[in-house]
Amino acid sequence: MKFHEMKEKDIEKVLNTDFSKGLTEKDAKARIKQHGFNELEEGEKQSALLLFFSQFKDFMVLVLLGAVLISGILGEYIDAVAIIAIVIINGLLGFYQERRAEKSLQALQELSAPQVTVLRSGEWIKIPSKELVAGDVIKFSSGDRIGADVRLIHSNSLEIEESALTGESLPVAKTTESLEEKELGIGDLENMAFMGTMVTRGSGIGVVVATGMKTAMGQIADLLQNAQSMITPLQRKLQQLGKILITVALLLTVLVVVVGVIQGHDVYTMFLAGVSLAVAAIPEGLPAIVTVALSLGVQRMIKKNAIVRKLPAVETLGCASVICSDKTGTMTQNKMTVTNLWSGGSTWKVDGVGYQPKGRFYRGDTDNPIDIKKEKALQQMLMFGMICNHASIKEIEESEFVVDGDPTEGALLVAAMKAGYNQASLAKQFEIVQEFPFDSARKMMSIVMKDSNGRQFVVTKGAPDVLVGRSESILWDGKRQLLSNNLKKEVHSAIDELASQALRTIAIGFKEISATTIILDEKEAEKGLTLIGLQGMIDPPRPEVRQAVKECKEAGIKTVMITGDHVITAKAIAKQLGILSKNNKVLDGNALSNMSVEELEDVVEDVTVFARVSPEHKLKIVKAFQNNGHVVAMTGDGVNDAPAIKTADIGVAMGITGTDVAKEASALVLVDDNFATIKDAIKEGRNIYENIRKFIRYLLASNVGEILVMLFAMLLALPLPLVPIQILWVNLVTDGLPAMALGLDQPEGDVMRRNPRSPKEGIFARGLGWKVVSRGFLIGLVTLIAFVIAHNSNPEHLEYAQTVAFSTLVLAQLIHVFDCRSERSIFARNPFENMYLVWAVISSVLLMFIVIYYPPLQPIFHTVPIIAKDWIMIFALAATPTFLLAGSFLARKRK
Ligand code: ATP
Predict the structure, then answer these.
(1) Mind telling me which residue stretches traverse the membrane in this protein (predicted)?
(2) Which residues are paired to 479 by β-bridges?
(3) Has residue 583 got a pLDDT over 60?
């Protein structure tokens, strides 16, 4: 018998589980041991060895190895071994960088791995979906992805979208009854839910019947290759640039070799020098360093509670010019407390802190607590707020209470508890027969319930302006009265009064229906209601948001609040947070519905608050901003937010309240649901990009210097200023460590005081190209001057002049690296801020001394010891490029 045919009792028996308690941890562990993790097998990964060898696939490295072979055959053993050693060290370094990049990308994926809610030993807990086993009881609700194949045992308006398996994009309604037919297609198995499918509505509980490769999803393996492109726009541009750079470097190298040979140099020497130069000058390691810099930045973001799910987002973050953010929970704390109530013209206040169910009620503005028993309408409103409710309040420690569920519902529970109501005893008194879950588009939730006398009622709670539209009558002075236009006005002024105090408002209504009526849908339930009253709750702003909004403004980034709340509530909070100023406008959902995207484009620049919006409005807002040329970050948490999150340049999902669907659509997940985290991520994104610019600038200028010194020397018919092994050493040491340390640099103080970068900006924008060429030229020139001076002073001793040239080149680069830290000049920043760089430079200098002064290495590196007097000249020349240009910068500034 198959699971869909079985009765619940039989399933429990077959799977050896208990639906009321679930499995025990021990049992679950044993089952994992036996059947393995709930994972789908992935394709083959590149082995470490293969990755290591792939470092030597590079064409020029192969040519170099060939050349070395030749020099070995010609008897130049020292050169051959030394060059091979350097190539291997270089390969190891590349290997290490790539491994590290790969590892951190993997860690990222694990961080955003899905979680499920499972019943273990009678407690609902969250575990990684990977740890599910057959027999586990799991629960899920709208927005969740199902973690394994399950047979449903409880469902509440449950609808699941199964397109991943069936191709059918319309959600299927699910039931729990056993089915009689034996052979059914996946689409017809109404009492089953499958791994990877998505809950679009309602909630359910199911027992896991298959995991991992045994699931329906596991059987169609080819669907799984949905790996996203992890390559960023900058990396793509670098790949293209790489091709140009390789060509240019090769052409120049060929030129060096040809000119050298024409000027009478030995062909073999020139060939080896040329190949070494090509290896050094081609920035083959650039893409890997970029990945490392990106992933290091991503790690820093994780520490600040932002998880990047798609690497390209790191770059896009730096370009963000608009952040559209949800209000509730992101800008506010989502810790709701009912403070004001209204019914039939009377008002009450209630005190108490947080979710602690202790507080007293006061009438109007008086300070004498009232006897709640005398206030029938208030009682009824509080009681209905408790019954039409999905949340529960738990005491985790003494006097420390938390909500399990929606904080808005938690607040209603606490208010009712303050009046003496108890959820468990109400549940005994009233039987809930049907439920229509809350959704942000309808802005209401309803239940159908029976009391102990068999009478049936619909109870609805929701946004007051919506509920008023669905009500025919109202409770006024304990009597039901027709909701006339006059009374409507009164209600609306009560709503506005609560909202103007920045309170989130909920209205409660009900109607009696005949005991036998079965309500078909929410439309039928939510009409002809009797309005009882309003509850207003505070949701204090997060303290750090005001400052974050201000910083965004300074950074040229506009903050837009989007909320389902009432316009007046939204305005009040937006003002507190500095989002709404005199020149800004507020648009509401109605106005938005009546506008086309084009019409919205015309006004959207002035709007900073969108209120009473539905999730589908978000897409329109994103598009309008994008059409105006903005790079948009958009937050969201629900299923209906997914299209907007996907369309936004940076989709942001909430880590705590976000559904799986929203997270999967997003590029960035906020672990703490906090708006300020978006600002931190943007700052980090800008910083990472700047750091990448820094080391591109450093590496390319260094390479230009290396090529030019050789080219100049050949054109002037001079001997070789650097021998091949020296060139390779410079490539490994001077270009290696300091470049990596630049990737770890701190942001320049003003990154958040500049306007956002244009996403169209090229790599060499903002003067970078000129900096590379001018610095590179000067580095080449001073190295040549040093060589010529040394060579003229001692023409017999070429190795002496070469050692001087080598030291000048190394020092010039190591001084220049500090210049690269700033867009302005070397004096703009304290060099000791980045101690990684200081240590990288110190180690490079020490390694240079070792190569020059350690006798066994001298024959290998063709160096000779040089004296203090030489060092003075070397240092003066090496410092010239950087200080000359810094001086000219200061002079220009003074003008
Ligand atoms: P955002 O997170 O975008 O700021 P929001 O939380 O303010 O959105 P929704 O959750 O869509 O917006 O709520 C919109 C309105 O629906 C609220 O102002 C409230 O009146 C009502 N509402 C919210 N939660 C519930 C609920 N659980 N049951 C009934 N009504 C609700």
Answers:
(1) 48-71, 77-96, 244-262, 268-294, 695-717, 723-744, 772-791, 797-815, 836-856, 871-891
(2) 476
(3) yes
